[in-house]
Inverse folding.
């Protein structure tokens, strides 16, 4: 194993590399395989208030965690789910949006204007902002369910994690048609 030397002063990654050096000093390889031990993939937002393992009672190795802005089902998420399903033991997918999400507070036009104000023209990017979180969640769950490269009966559910209470509200049950949202607390 190669040890990372302590970073030099002024290194923009010095804090995290120093923390990693400390972590590595006591690290123990538990020999976990790279598969999802509980057969679960979780797609959630990149919001730093979300700790997917902790909020679902999981431990490292239990699930494949996918994150992006708004917990959106993109082409890359679908590609990753195919790999996770056929190579890494994923048998079910949970899509988790969250309350107080920045993707629900802006339109693509808003984001482009904010980026342009900093001197970058981002109009070629589709940021996939969210006007109606529940409708978007229903759509994204259905997109996974109908992807021809995934098992047709693979359980897929969708919910909204409340960043203030820690609770998950299920919007799309694994057993319900994606067009029929459900309302229940997790």
């Amino acid at each position: 194993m190669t040890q990372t030397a302590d970073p030099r002063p002024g290194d923009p990654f010095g804090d995290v590399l120093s923390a990693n050096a400390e972590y590595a000093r006591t690290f123990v390889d538990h020999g976990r395989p790279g598969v999802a031990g509980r057969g679960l993939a979780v797609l959630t937002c990149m919001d730093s208030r979300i700790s997917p393992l902790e909020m679902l009672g999981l431990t490292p190795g239990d699930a494949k965690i996918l994150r992006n802005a708004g917990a959106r089902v993109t082409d890359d998420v679908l590609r990753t789910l195919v790999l996770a399903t056929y190579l890494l033991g994923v048998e079910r997918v949970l899509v988790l949006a969250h309350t107080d999400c920045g993707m629900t507070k802006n339109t693509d036009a808003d984001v482009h204007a904010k980026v342009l104000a900093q001197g970058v023209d981002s109009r070629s990017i589709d940021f996939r902002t969210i006007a109606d979180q529940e409708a978007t969640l229903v759509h994204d769950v259905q997109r996974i369910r109908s992807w021809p490269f995934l098992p047709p009966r693979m359980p897929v559910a969708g919910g909204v994690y409340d960043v203030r209470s820690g609770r998950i509200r299920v919007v799309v049950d694994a057993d319900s048609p994606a067009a029929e949202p459900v309302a229940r607390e997790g």
Remarks:
- Helices lie at 14-26, 52-55, 75-87, 108-116, 133-145.
- Residues 142 and 177 are 8 Å apart (CA to CA).
- The two ends are 42 Å apart (CA to CA).
